[in-house]
Structures are given as C-alpha cells and as structure tokens.
TrEMBL record, chain A:
GO cellular component annotations of the record: ATP-binding cassette (ABC) transporter complex
Keyword Transport: yes
UniProt protein name: Amino acid ABC transporter permease
Molecular function in Gene Ontology: transmembrane transporter activity
Family: Belongs to the binding-protein-dependent transport system permease family. HisMQ subfamily.
GO biological process: amino acid transport
Species in which this protein is naturally found: Prauserella cavernicola
C-alpha cells in the first residue's frame, strides 16, 4: 500500500502515541501503588528529616562545595597562569597536574586524603579541610583549563593597549585580561560549580559526625532509620535546590555574554 | 631636550622568513606631524609598532623621547608612558566604563589619585567631544566614538608623542570625519604625531612630512605637496593614482 508523505507521518506519530498510552496503562494497572507511595512519599519518614536536612545537610553541602570551589578557583588560576607561562617546566608541571586530576576519579582523591594521608603521614585534618582540599584538587584541574581558554579568548589587542599605556605584563594580566577572561568563562564556571556540588556527596565516605552530614550521607542515614526511599528523594530534591538555579544562571549568563559579543562585533566590524 | 623625538635607524624586522622591514631610517621632530602612506603589506604598521616596541625589531635602533627602545635593558614600561598609541581596532577595555578606560593607567601606572585622574579624564573627553559618554560602556558607543575615547585614553597619559595605526580604517565612512577632526585639532595644538593612514586628504592638509613606504623600505619622503602632489618615484605615482582615483585605475 503506497502512502503519501503526510499519511506516513501521521501513521508513524500514531504508533508512537499508541506505545506511550499502552505503557502508561500497563504501569497504572500493574504497579503496586501502595508500596510505591510508601517508599517514595512516606510523610512520616519525611517528617523525621526536617529540619536537619535543611539546617545541617543542605548547609554542609553548600559549605563543603563553597570551600572546595574557592580553593579550586585559586589553585586553578595559578595552574592556568603556569600553563601559559613562557617557562617550560611550569607548563609541564601544570599539564601533568591537570591531566592527572582530570583523569582519576574524585572518589580516589577523597580516599587518598581522607584515609591515605592520615595513615601515611600521621596528619589528621578536620572534615572541612579534607573536603575543601579534595574538592579543590579535583575542581582546580577543570577550572584551570576553563580559565586558560578564557584568558586566551581575550583579544590580544587588549594586552597591546594596556602595554602601550605603560602597564607591565603582569599588571595588564591582572587589571585587563583576567577580569575579561572571567566574564567569558562565567557560564562554564557555573557548570563546574554544579559538578562540584554533586562531587561533594563523596565526603560521606569519610565517616562524618552527625553535625557534619551532607545531603547524601543524611539521606542514607534517613534510609536506614525509616526503611523508606523518601529521605533519598528529599536529599535529591535538595541537590536540585542548589543545581537548578545554578543551571538557569549559567544559561542566562551564556545568553547575555553571547549577546554582548554580538554587539561588540557589530561595532568593531 | 633634543629637537628630534623619534629616531629610527637601520631598522629590520622579519616574521619568520618574511622580511617586512628592510632597513628603515626616519625621524620625527618635536611638534611635527608625520604621515606614513603606502600599499597594504608595505610594512608601515609594523614600523609604527616597532616604535613603541609592540613588535621587536631584528636589527637597528629606535630612539624615542631619549629612551633607546631597542636596548634590552631599557625600562620599557616607563618609556611607553610617553608614547600614546591609537589602534585600528580601538582596543578599548571592554569590561570598563569610558571613565575607567581613561583613568586605569593613570592610577595604576602614574599612581595619580582618583580625583586627579578623573579630572584629567574629563578634560580629555571634552577635547574629543564626548564628555556626555563618561559613564557609558564601550559596547554602547559607535566605532567613531570608541576611537575618540581611545584617543582620549592615550592623551590622558600626557604623552610626548602620539602614534596612530590606521585609526579610521575600521570605521564606517560617515564616522571617519569625526575622528580625523579630533586628530586635526590635536595637530593644530602642536602634538607630535606619527600617523599610518590611507586618508590622503588628511595627510596632504595636516602632515608636515609624508613617508611613502613600499616593500619594506621608505621609497620617498618629503612635504606632502611634494610626495602626494608631485611624486618623483614611479611606485609612488602608481600607488597614488590607485588611491586617489580608484575607479579609473586600469594600470
């Protein structure tokens, strides 16, 4: 039977909707709604999570991530500048560092810092330092590459103008290039922050006191206490409270810088 | 204080195997306006950029304002303070307002306080006719306005000499006049200027001396009436015929 293009498109779409409706009906009929509701939407279990899930777990997740990001940013900037250095060994060291920490799982870094360093060097950091250093080491590798790209994206004419006004190379870098590089990389940098927020969950491995719980650990403890998935779902929702606005911010910044660059091009063209 | 402010001698510059400058000798006296004309690829922009050492020459010496720019031990940042530079692409600092564009180097390099830097900036914005744009961002300005701000930025360092690298080449034709007008006023006020330009009318009317460059050498130099009005060399004649009368340039 020969079908016209329109008939074929209509049939194809009809089949897709048919499959979807069938799937929904099957799930509705055969799923055990009582158990599912009990697992995910158990109000009693949910009630036990508050207010600590917000006042302790969410706050701690934000603190761990914030510390890690701050350290990652500082270290990342140093690495980016090393990578752009005219001194070979600086470039090599930065490259080795970046490749290493981008290539190994964050989990391994946490184990090394949380268990390895205390055992090997008899050094014990408190949990906030361990979190900041681990997340900072991992984050800096990604941030360094982003920053390097941002610095290189600043037009060379900016440095020439700064130098011709009598600024030294480093002065031009600090006052002219780096601020503009940050504007360029704000969207990808926001994404790094989102990734770091999720990586902060790995701290749960390190054996936390109750006041040190972050969202993942808190959810897990809730699961143990209630036997319900509800605490895990709540913890997940709390991550979204952090990551969704950041995601929107990132996309907003991307649109804004994109528009700005268009304007800039129009004027210079 | 010597009479000559820029002294270039035996200047050679190559990019890889491409020899761009093949032995340039030239000088600019205090208060003089010197225009460099010539076809694209003749090395005129490279020469200008060698004057403030944005390009490092392979051989030869450049003396500006009693600084030997080509001496490896010269304090290049200090030497450049006295040399204003205006670029074809304006190169305003995109993250800073017009005012900050004009004050940042005054404050960071000359260590002027905020008050003084601002008053110098305002004065120079007035000179280029853009006081009302003091709080604008560069992206909000037209090309011609950006270039005038760039001129004001260079002037705010109170340089002894100004370098212009094809300052109107990136502009829409109707905006060229404003920028040339500012440059003409500067020249009338006695500013020493070295200008790479394709604006023959400007060179003819404002310059004290015109250099015609082609193939990395200065082919001809002299007063504009001579170099533009009555060129002696065939290469100069051909170039000027093409520039002044592009529609009928059959040769």
């Amino acid at each position: 039977m020969a079908m016209s293009r329109r008939q074929r498109a209509r049939t194809f779409r009809g089949v897709q909707y048919g499959v979807l409706v069938l799937a929904v009906v099957l799930i509705a009929v055969f799923a055990d709604w009582g158990t599912i509701r009990n697992a995910f939407f158990n109000l009693d279990a949910a009630a036990t999570q508050f207010p600590e899930i917000l006042s302790t777990a969410l706050v701690n997740t934000i603190i761990y991530t914030g510390l890690g990001f701050a350290l990652g940013l500082a270290l990342g900037l140093v690495l980016a500048l090393m990578k752009l250095s005219s001194v070979g060994p600086y470039r090599w060291l930065a490259t080795i560092y970046i490749e290493f920490f981008r290539g190994v799982p964050a989990l391994l870094v946490f184990i090394a810092l949380g268990y390895g360093v205390p055992l090997a060097f008899q050094l014990r950091f408190d949990i906030y330092s361990t979190a900041a250093i681990s997340l900072g080491l991992v984050g800096s590798a990604y941030i360094a590459e982003t920053l390097r790209a941002g610095i290189q994206a600043v037009p060379p004419g900016q440095v020439e103008a700064a130098r011709s006004l009598g600024m030294s190379q480093s002065r031009a870098m600090i006052t002219i290039v780096i601020p503009q590089a940050f504007r360029i990389i704000l969207p990808p940098l926001t994404n790094e922050l989102i990734l770091l927020t999720k990586d902060s969950s790995l701290i749960y491995l390190l054996g936390l006191a109750r006041t040190e719980y972050e969202l993942a650990k808190f959810g897990r403890e809730g699961l143990n206490a209630t036997g319900s998935l509800t605490p895990i779902l709540l913890a997940g929702l709390c991550y979204l409270i952090i990551t969704l606005p950041l995601g929107y911010l990132s996309r907003y910044l991307e649109r804004r810088t994109g528009r700005k660059q268009d304007e800039g091009l129009k004027v210079t063209a | 204080m010597s009479d000559v402010i820029i002294e270039v001698s035996g200047l050679h510059k190559a990019f890889g195997n491409l020899e761009v400058l093949k032995g340039i000798d030239m000088s600019v006296k205090r208060g003089e306006v010197v225009c460099i004309i010539g076809p694209s690829g003749s090395g005129k922009s490279t020469l200008l950029r060698c004057v403030n050492l944005l390009e490092e020459p392979n051989a030869g010496t450049v003396l500006v304002n009693d600084f030997e720019m080509t001496d490896p031990d010269v304090d290049i940042d200090k030497a450049r303070r006295g040399i204003g530079m205006v670029f074809q692409g304006f190169n305003l600092f995109g993250h800073l307002s017009v005012l900050d564009n004009l004050t940042i180097a005054q404050r960071k390099v000359l260590k002027r306080d905020a008050e003084e830097a601002k008053s110098v900036a305002k004065e120079n914005l007035r000179r280029v006719g853009l006081e009302e744009k003091i709080n604008s961002m560069p992206s909000q300005l037209s090309g011609g306005q950006q270039q005038r701000v760039a001129i004001a930025r260079a002037l705010s360092m109170q340089p002894a000499v100004m370098l212009f690298d094809e300052p109107t080449s990136a502009l829409d034709p109707e905006l060229v006049g404003d920028v040339l007008g500012v440059m003409r006023t500067l020249a009338n006020e006695g500013m020493t200027m070295l200008v790479v330009t394709h604006e023959m009318q400007f060179a003819r009317e404002v310059a004290d001396k015109v250099l015609f460059m082609d193939g990395g050498v200065v082919v001809e130099e002299g007063p504009p009436a001579q170099v533009i009005g009555d060129p002696q060399h065939e290469r100069t004649q051909t170039f000027l015929r093409r520039v002044l009368n592009p529609v009928h340039a059959h040769d």
